[in-house]
Amino acid sequence: MAKPPARDPHPPGGVSRRAFLKTMGIGAAATGLAHGAPDGAPAAATTVLGPDPVPLELVVNGARVTVSVEPRVTLLRALRNHLGLTGAKEVCERGACGGCTVLFDGEPICACLMLAVDAVGHEIVTVEGLGAPENLSPVQAAFVECDALQCGFCTPGFVVASTALLHKNPDPSLEEIKAGLAGNLCRCGTYSRIFEAVQKAATTQQSGPRRG
Question: Are 91 and 99 in contact (CB under 8 A)?
Answer without folding.
Answer: yes
